[in-house]
């Protein structure tokens, strides 16, 4: 069975918009676990525009499933992860000013760097994952770094799904085959949604974990809207 790790970045975005503590990130994460999710993912960015470094420390104390911290392994991020010791760290090569993650690692070009960072995390007992495009060469490069898993960057699948889902999934099937051959665990994420997740999971049978945030939070707002509007109307009767 594939585990669902809910990315709570967007909860922190909403909280930060008013400067207070509503919604309460820790409460939301705990409730997401109560509702059955098997993990919590966060992606602290250097400007702390959503998840703050302190959130990572606080979440570590209350998450009872699996905490996955994603990010670009700059020195500050590496120190944070080694201090917090999440269950899993996912290395993502995003630029400081990136709106969101927009590419996987070139695991061949950055092999030496990745190998060093992966070794540090594994020595600390943290499971490692490397964010890669659906390209068997990049998967093979990831294996050389010593990582436990890869996370397939699913933006191209999500975009292609509505046009031609059979075509959109093909590179992911190939990349997953390569990962299986090399005994690498497979995670996936980015722009997965209620529309496209089932077909993805059906076609990538060894999928260990998906991390989903943006669509899941948007869907939650929309699916809850009618209920909440009616609750307000009842209060105003
Ligand atoms: C690695 C990945 O695809 C996600 O972590 C995604 O980048 C979410 O980050 P934002 O919420 O900052 O867009
Ligand atoms: N690793 C992907 C992730 O955590 C969530 O990405 P998205 O669903 O917010 O696009």
Automatic annotation (TrEMBL):
Annotated positions binding 3-amino-2-oxopropyl phosphate: 7, 18, 191, 213-214
UniProt subcellular location: Cytoplasm
GO CC terms in record: cytosol
Keywords carried by this UniProt record: Cytoplasm, Pyridoxine biosynthesis, Transferase
Residues holding 1-deoxy-D-xylulose 5-phosphate: 45, 50, 100
InterPro entries found in the cross-reference section: Aldolase_TIM (IPR013785), PyrdxlP_synth_PdxJ (IPR004569), Pyridoxine-5'_phos_synth (IPR036130)
Top enzyme class: transferase
Main localization category: cytoplasm
GO biological process, one term: pyridoxine biosynthetic process
EC number: 2.6.99.2
GO-annotated molecular function: pyridoxine 5'-phosphate synthase activity
Catalytic activity reported: 3-amino-2-oxopropyl phosphate + 1-deoxy-D-xylulose 5-phosphate = pyridoxine 5'-phosphate + phosphate + 2 H2O + H(+)
Site (Transition state stabilizer) location in chain: 151
Domain of life (superkingdom): Bacteria
Entry annotated with the keyword Transferase: yes
Signal peptide: none
Subunit structure: Homooctamer; tetramer of dimers.
Similarity comment: family membership: Belongs to the PNP synthase family.
Xref: HAMAP family: PdxJ
Function in brief: Catalyzes the complicated ring closure reaction between the two acyclic compounds 1-deoxy-D-xylulose-5-phosphate (DXP) and 3-amino-2-oxopropyl phosphate (1-amino-acetone-3-phosphate or AAP) to form pyridoxine 5'-phosphate (PNP) and inorganic phosphate.
Protein name, UniProt field: Pyridoxine 5'-phosphate synthase
Organism of this sequence: Maribacter algicola
Lineage: Bacteria, Pseudomonadati, Bacteroidota, Flavobacteriia, Flavobacteriales
Gene that this polypeptide is encoded by: pdxJ
